């Protein structure tokens, strides 16, 4: 991060509130296409897309060197089933049935990868029809299962990735996925986990994206407050069921070609179609630009849980704890883990600012190496954003009702350390 971008981000977030994110919309649905690798810097992306929360498309030049684009695709641009079976045939993978709706999503099952590929080949042979329905391999943690494989390198633009930095540190999970599906497979209307950013790279095939800026989803809810499963369904025209649908804006439409990367901003709801047999790689990620949006989302989720079990508030002694447990089962995180998330992010940056990074550590593919590559000012920006959100978390009444004695260091001590590190770095 250069000084001009640091100054720009400081000025922007000084007056920013996560509730104002819906104000940032695109002119006439335009989405920028980034063509040249050599002339597009990290600071360009940070200033023009991360801060204003705008989508964009990166050309196939940005993925030219990836092993998956060399090895997973045949000469005519189709999935190379033989190669994929050779490398991953015995893996067990999550597969969704796109033809079945279950609790506003598609039901999943675990299948051997070789069984899924055999299904896919038969599906193509039968003119994209099968008694099993349209099956879509989704949310496969391939990088975690096969770390030795030369698949891809995360572009520098997406390297400030707090989600995967934290979950890698606790060795529990990650938010790096591979998707593989036949023509006609699709993902229903949704916003990404924790209202995170996502980037999605097509290794082969084509996708169609329908994007709605934050706030537009409110017009798409039915009279009970539920979002639609499919935003293209004719039923949305029924005013008795969807009373505000006619007030919604048309979606931003993106056609994504092979090799291209789509950046989906924080909190943008979307629906996605595979127009051809398609393989893609996706990361969900959070950083200093959208961590306040994540925190706002978590507060909304807890409030929803509290409303659902409000009748048990008086008779249940540990009602607040039960709300946290339910929230974690639904979203994957509770307030105490969110504190630990902020702590890990903060401590990694404090370590870089106070101790630097030796040559051996710099050469490794680690979170601290990525932090160091982005520069001291980026680490300071991250700490400033962490202070902002941690201050809000510490003052939150629901957080203060929890047993915080297990948190080390205590929130007040961590805040003091953060502020001191920022002051020292800016001397």
TrEMBL record:
Keywords: Iron, Metal-binding, Oxidoreductase
InterPro entries: Cupin_8, JmjC_dom, JMJD6_ArgDemeth/LysHydrox
The JmjC domain, residue ranges: 143-302
Cofactors: Fe(2+)
Classification via Pfam families: Cupin_8
Sample GO molecular function, one term: sequence-specific DNA binding
Superkingdom field: Eukaryota
Chemical reaction(s) catalysed: L-lysyl-[protein] + 2-oxoglutarate + O2 = 4-hydroxy-L-lysyl-[protein] + succinate + CO2
SUPFAM superfamilies noted in UniProt: Clavaminate synthase-like
CC per GO annotation: cytoplasm; nucleus
BP GO terms, sorted: positive regulation of translational termination
Family to which the UniProt record says this protein belongs: Belongs to the JMJD6 family.
Protein name, per record: 2-oxoglutarate and iron-dependent oxygenase JMJD4
Organism of derivation: Anser cygnoides
Lineage: Eukaryota, Metazoa, Chordata, Craniata, Vertebrata
């Amino acid at each position: 991060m250069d000084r001009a971008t640091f100054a720009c981000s400081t000025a922007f977030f000084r007056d920013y509130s996560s509730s104002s994110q819906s104000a940032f919309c695109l002119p006439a649905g335009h989405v920028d296409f980034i063509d040249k690798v050599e002339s597009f810097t990290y600071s360009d992306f940070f200033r023009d897309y991360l801060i204003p929360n705008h989508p964009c498309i990166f050309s196939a030049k940005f993925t030219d060197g990836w092993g998956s684009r060399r090895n997973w695709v045949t000469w005519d641009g189709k999935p190379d089933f033989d190669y994929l079976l050779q490398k991953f045939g015995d893996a067990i993978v999550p597969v969704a049935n796109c033809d079945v709706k279950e609790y506003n999503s598609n039901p999943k099952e675990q299948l051997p990868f070789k069984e899924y590929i055999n299904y896919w080949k038969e599906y193509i042979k039968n003119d994209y029809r099968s008694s099993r329905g349209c099956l879509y391999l989704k949310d496969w943690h391939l990088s975690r299962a096969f770390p030795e494989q030369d698949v891809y390198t995360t572009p520098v633009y997406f390297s400030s990735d707090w989600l995967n930095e934290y979950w890698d540190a606790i060795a529990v999970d990650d938010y790096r996925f591979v998707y593989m599906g036949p023509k006609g497979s699709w993902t229903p209307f949704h916003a990404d986990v924790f209202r995170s950013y996502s980037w999605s790279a097509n290794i082969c095939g084509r996708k169609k994206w329908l994007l709605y800026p934050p706030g537009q989803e409110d017009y798409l809810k039915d009279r009970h407050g539920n979002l639609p499963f499919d935003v293209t369904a004719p039923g949305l025209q029924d005013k008795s069921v969807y009373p505000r649908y006619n007030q919604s804006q048309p979606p931003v439409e993106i056609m994504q070609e092979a090799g291209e990367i789509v950046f989906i901003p924080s909190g943008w709801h979307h629906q996605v179609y595979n127009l051809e047999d398609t393989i893609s790689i996706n990361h969900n990620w959070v950083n200093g630009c959208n961590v306040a949006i994540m925190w706002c989302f978590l507060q909304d989720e807890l409030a929803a849980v509290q409303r659902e079990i409000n009748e048990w508030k008086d008779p249940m002694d540990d009602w607040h704890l039960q709300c946290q447990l339910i929230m974690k089962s639904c979203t994957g995180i509770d307030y105490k883990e969110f504190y630990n998330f902020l702590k890990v992010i903060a401590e990694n940056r404090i370590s870089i600012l106070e101790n630097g990074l030796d040559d051996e550590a710099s050469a490794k593919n680690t979170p601290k190496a990525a932090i160091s590559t982005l520069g001291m000012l980026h680490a300071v920006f991250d700490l400033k954003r962490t202070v902002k959100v941690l201050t809000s978390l510490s003052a939150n009444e629901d957080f203060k009702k929890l047993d915080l004695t297990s948190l080390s260091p205590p929130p007040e001590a961590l805040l003091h350390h953060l502020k001191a590190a920022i002051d020292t770095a800016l001397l």
